[in-house]
């Protein structure tokens, strides 16, 4: 048993990410979600879910991102929790709007 036995595949149909950009963020950016642990490289939004891309041969199911990782569950879950804490600190709602008329 080696510690690098972690596998990534869809928890529903076992489709494995092929390294291509199948995931689109709401900001419009398309990238490989598994390269960044589901963080959008453009707007830094962290996706807690990942869809199995039907267009690439997957089943189309939407699953928690962490459920895609198999083999190192404890470690990965810890990692994800850690980064989600970091996100809560750095991603504190960037809902900036101009309210110049408010007095
Ligand atoms: Zn984005
Ligand atoms: Zn699937």
Mind explaining what this structure looks like?
The chain has 103 residues and is an alpha+beta fold. It has one domain (7-90). Helices cover 17% and strands 14% of the residues. It is built from 1 helix and 6 strands; from the N terminus they run ββββββα. The strands form 3 sheets. Strands 1-6 form a two-stranded antiparallel sheet. Strands 2-3 form a two-stranded antiparallel sheet. β2 (23-24) and β3 form a beta hairpin. The N and C termini lie far apart (65 Å). The model has no long low-confidence stretch (mean pLDDT 84). The protein binds zinc ion (2 copies). One zinc ion (ZN) binds at residues 25, 27, 29, 40, 42-43, 45.
Percent range for β-strand residues: 5-15%
The SS-based structural class is alpha+beta
Radius of gyration: 16 Å
Strands ordered across the widest β-sheet: 1-6
* Terminal CA distance: 65 Å
What low-confidence regions span 5 or more consecutive residues with pLDDT below 50?
none
Number of strands: 6
Number of helices: 1
Query: How many domains, in number, for the residues?
Result: 1
Following the backbone from N to C, one meets helices and strands in this order, namely EEEEEEH
Based on Cα principal axes, name the global outline.
Answer: globular
Q: Which ligands accompany this protein?
A: zinc ion
Question: What about the largest sheet?
Answer: 2 strands, antiparallel
Query: Helical proportion?
Result: 10-25%
Mean pLDDT: 84
């Amino acid at each position: 048993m080696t510690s690098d036995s972690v596998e990534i595949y869809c928890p529903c149909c076992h489709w494995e990410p092929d390294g291509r950009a199948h995931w689109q963020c709401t900001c419009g950016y398309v990238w490989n979600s598994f390269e960044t642990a589901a963080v959008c490289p453009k707007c830094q939004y962290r996706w807690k879910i990942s869809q199995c891309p039907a267009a690439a041969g997957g089943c189309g199911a939407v699953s928690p991102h962490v459920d895609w990782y198999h083999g190192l569950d404890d470690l990965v879950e810890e990692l994800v929790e850690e980064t989600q804490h970091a996100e809560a600190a750095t991603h504190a709602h960037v809902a900036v709007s101009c309210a110049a008329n408010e007095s």
